[in-house]
Specification:
The protein is an all-alpha fold. It is built from 23 helices and two strands. Helix 6 runs antiparallel to helix 14 and helix 18 packs across helix 19. It is globular and about 75 Å long. It is a multi-pass membrane protein.
Length: about 575
């Protein structure tokens, strides 16, 4: 059976499973729709959180960017992992104790201000749309190759599926769907990694194969895998794989932005409101970190295997270039999607990949994980399984983001601000309408994304770092912070960060080089500076306008020293 047929079967079966779960767990109230009635078991919630967290950027793009950027690509691995630890230890239990549905809900009540709530809603929607653009792009990349459709068509298919189970099931349906999606994506990530590790190094564990010697019969046999990669990279005019070319300030800034951005992501934070008790929030965070590590600890090895296999396949063992007529089918199949391009510069009929003027191959980094099984000539069912995993990763996060958008509109804007007297049924209706509108807009962003998947997601993290993180941290650990300071900090932080990203990515992309960056910080890392500006502005304005009211300070004390479970309640 060919790859396309198997892909249709496996992806179709997973879609049927997701839809069946959504029907089985259909939300019947806003409490079901927003937080699954707060009744999810910590282990299940940990698995769902892991799926929510491991988006298309983690599954499709992270190993790809590490494969191409080497050491510099590790900032994504370090930042996202460290950020989740920060979220689990410093934020999750306190937010769960506060007992609100959403991040804007927390900010609006903590800072006793509808203006703060509205600004938080705007930030949440902006962050979520930026993030979801990367997820929809990931769906399009998967479908464009394995279902042999245009990227735009693939985005439409994914949008329809995620719309169905998000609108129907809400958080309750999403939670149990994400449990299934985690199982699919983790299995799909590990199986090819184990196959390739055994072939290239003889090690069944990819993590140990990553540091092992190359097996007999494979090009470069006897050399350590990373040593071989360094040698190949330098010979082909690329930076040594294990050495970075980014300046250290930018490496620190990107890592920090990803870390603190993680702790401010609304679609991840809301997952801690779905468990029964504060203690369960801590437990589910620990389980989620365990489930996340299964994929994240495998990503560097997949990246190294993919890069070596790519060079060996395109340039050949002697690095002279393989004749295009003799190229494996996977290159020609990916060419149809325009995600691989070949230009025969010297008219010798041979392909050549390098980092200098000899280069004839343009390879989209988002295809590396998806193409890896084909590059390694693994069985067709493994290739189809990886396609299903990529779709699961993208859809699971898209669902969480769409829920954030819908609840921000229906609960935070309508119920808590503009129409406080609407019924539970009306609020649920508006939540579904908002989700439908969000799907339509996110589909457009998926077709016209502002960069590759991991880069687009990095922008979302930067915006979260510059807006939500300081407001949440000070809201929990600095009881005297007032609403005026928090509002000023959020506005200045997100405006500065967004303006910086828009200027270098859209207004003047030709200027997007280190010499023009502020303090040598790239658009991917500018959220760190935006965060610092937020903290400074908030503190200065607070000092000029006075402390928060005493009842608010007492409320913060009760959050930091919890004595009860605290239930998520509707207002």
């Amino acid at each position: 059976m060919d790859i396309q047929t198997l892909t249709f079967i496996i992806v179709g079966l997973t879609f049927a499973l997701y839809i069946a779960i959504a029907i089985w767990s259909r939300a019947g109230s806003t409490n079901d729709f927003y937080v699954a009635s707060g009744g999810v078991h910590p282990v299940m919630n940990g698995m769902a959180t892991a799926a929510d967290w491991m988006s298309a950027a983690s599954f499709i793009s992270m190993a790809g960017i590490i494969a191409f950027a080497g050491y510099d690509g590790s900032v994504y691995l370090m930042g996202w992992t460290g950020g989740y630890v920060l979220l689990a230890l410093c934020l999750a239990p306190y937010l769960r104790k506060f007992g609100k549905f959403t991040v804007p809900d927390f900010i609006g009540d903590r800072y006793y201000s509808q203006t703060a709530r509205t600004i938080a809603v705007i930030c949440a929607i902006l962050i979520s749309f930026t993030y979801i653009a990367g997820q929809m792009r990931g769906v399009g990349v998967v479908f464009s190759r394995f279902l042999e459709v245009e990227i735009a068509t693939g985005v439409f298919i994914g949008a329809v599926i995620v719309f169905f189970y998000t609108v129907l099931g809400g958080m309750k349906g999403i939670t149990y769907t994400q449990v299934a999606q985690y199982c699919v994506l983790a299995f799909a990530y590990l199986v090819p990694a184990i196959f390739i590790s055994m072939y290239m190094t003889g090690h069944i564990l990819p993590q140990t194969g990553f540091g092992a010697t190359i097996a007999e019969g494979v090009a470069g046999e006897g050399n350590y895998l990373l040593q071989r990669l360094d040698g190949l990279s330098e010979e082909l005019g690329l930076a040594a794989y294990t050495e970075g070319v980014r300046n250290k300030i930018d490496v620190f800034a990107i890592t920090c932005a990803l870390m603190v951005g993680t702790a401010g992501l609304p679609h991840v934070i809301v997952r801690f409101f779905t468990v029964p008790k504060v203690h369960d929030a801590r437990r589910s965070a620990g389980w989620a970190l365990l489930f996340i590590s299964v994929v994240y600890l495998t990503a560097p090895s997949i990246a190294a295997f993919a890069k070596v296999n790519l060079i060996n396949t395109v340039n050949g063992p002697e690095l002279t270039g393989v004749k295009y007529e003799q190229a494996p089918d996977w290159i020609k199949n990916w060419q149809k999607t325009n995600l691989i391009q070949w230009e025969d510069k010297n008219n010798d009929g041979r392909m050549f990949y390098s980092g200098d003027e000899r280069n004839e191959m343009t390879v989209d980094r988002d295809i590396m994980v998806l193409a890896n099984p084909e590059i390694a000539d693994l069985p067709a069912w493994v290739v189809a399984l990886v396609a299903a995993g990529g779709v699961a990763a993208a859809l699971s996060t898209s669902a969480g983001l769409l829920l954030v958008i819908s609840t921000s509109v229906s609960h935070d804007l309508l119920k808590r601000t503009f129409a406080p007297n609407i019924t539970d049924r009306q609020e649920l209706k508006w939540a579904r309408i908002a989700a439908a509108a969000a799907v339509a807009l996110s589909t457009w962003f998926g077709i016209n994304p502002p960069g590759f998947v991991a880069q687009v997601v990095a922008f979302a993290f930067g915006l979260a770092a510059a807006s939500f993180f300081p407001a949440i941290i000070m809201g929990i650990f600095y009881k005297r912070m007032n609403s005026t300071g928090a509002i000023a900090g959020m506005v200045v932080g997100i405006v500065f960060t967004l303006a910086y990203i828009i200027y270098f990515k859209f207004v003047n992309p030709a200027a997007n080089v280190e010499a023009n960056w502020l303090f040598g910080i790239s658009p991917e890392g500018i959220g760190t500076l935006g965060m610092l500006i937020n903290f400074v502005v908030a503190y200065v304005v607070h000092k000029l306008t006075g402390d928060a009211p005493q009842d608010t300070q007492d409320l913060v004390e009760s959050i930091r020293y919890p004595k009860g479970a605290g239930g998520a309640v509707s207002h």
